Amino acid sequence: MNTLSGSTHAGIPHQRWLRIIPPILIACIISYMDRVNIAFAMPGGMDEELGISATMAGLAGGIFFIGYLFLQVPGGKIAVHGSGKKFIGWSLVAWAVISVLTGLITNQYQLLVLRFLLGVAEGGMLPVVLTMISNWFPDAERGRANAIVIMFVPIAGIITAPLSGWIITVLDWRWLFIIEGLLSVVVLVLWAYTVYDRPQEARWISEAEKNYLVETLAAEQQAIVGKEVKHASLSAVLSDKTMWQLIALNFFYQTGIYGYTLWLPTILKELTHTSIGQVGMLAVLPYVGAIAGMFLFSSLSDRTGKRKLFVSLPLIGFALCMFLSVTLKAHIWLSYAALVGCGVFLQYAAGVFWTIPARLFSAEMAGGARGVINALGNLGGFCGPYAVGVLITLYSKDAGVYCLAISLALAALMALLLPAKCDARAENPRPINPRKREA
């Protein structure tokens, strides 16, 4: 029996934990590497060669998320009604081409165009993979399954940081994009031969596991789906204020995440006055810390059913460490410890947060709902890096980091204000009824 699942259903095989989670995780890792390698390329020579200012660097880091908007809802709907496997397969091809082209650019405007196109190409990934997870894992397992997949952020950070520093040191920043782009082609082969959209399509799954999944997932949908919700339009769901609370929460969270992620190498380089290779090694530890706690928080949330609490607590810790990284900057290693602390809390909330839409929407609506929450929330991914770049230009890096801490504190407040029905074991939980808005 696979210990990852922690299932209480004795005798039910757990092949899905080893056959579905790893290829999804690897594809997500590649997407994130392509997304954040610019954070190392900038202080690694790209800014000097292309004449990029701090404001332009923030824009280049953030414009990705403008493109990221376009395929969020279509991706979620395709995963529900069509094939998420094919969607991600074509996405991997696009990631490879765009990343390689980025290594060949000659000016900052070409960079902006390619970063925007990379955002478009990656836009559907998260709602697609989360929908695929919801097709394979019942509610009692979904928090842990989401958390394992969302570990792609710290795992990608652990890989990208030293790899990027080494490639830039040995070759240059252009080869960083070319080499990491070619990795997408390798992952495409793995993806094509391992992943299935649903248990009914997989040839390797046992009848016992298939029947358990089909029956359990059907029972969950029967419990939460009413006629009004099943046939509701997405515009009707958007009329409910809880949906907008989730979007606002995700916006402030992503502002903090990507502001921190995309400026961390630059902040470390200025703090420690070391080479880009050494910065790459220093940047590993925050992501190691992130892995250490993600599974703990999601497991506690699954065990207790408390979603709001285990979203808000890590956000508070993230905001506090962000604040301390500035106030302690006179003491280099204490400030670095606070930056590591930021990494520790970086993704704790994410796995738990993405269990909430499945509690509020039918399967028919959940794919589109995830897309909207991720699309509009990830505008924070544009605002975070760009705001830090502008504040660095106008004031200092300290002002930029304080801005991120405030954003994370607001995200924690949004989590605490969510209704009780978001908790998995709230008394008499009900899905959002888009025709009866909350007072």
UniProtKB/TrEMBL annotation:
CDD domains: MFS_ExuT_GudP_like (cd17319)
Membrane protein topology class: Multi-pass membrane protein
Family annotation (PANTHER family): PERMEASE-RELATED (PTHR43791), SUGAR TRANSPORTER (PTHR43791:SF100)
Subcellular location(s) per record: Membrane
Descriptive protein name: 2-ketogluconate transporter
Annotated keywords: Cell membrane, Membrane, Transmembrane, Transmembrane helix, Transport
Domain of life: Bacteria
The keyword Transport is annotated on this UniProt entry: yes
Membrane-spanning intervals of the chain: 20-38, 50-71, 87-106, 112-133, 145-169, 175-196, 243-263, 275-297, 309-327, 333-354, 375-393, 399-420
Pfam family, one: MFS_1
Residue stretches making up the Major facilitator superfamily (MFS) profile domain: 20-423
Keyword Ribonucleoprotein recorded: no
InterPro entries cross-referenced by the UniProt entry: MFS, MFS_dom, MFS_trans_sf, Sugar_P_transporter
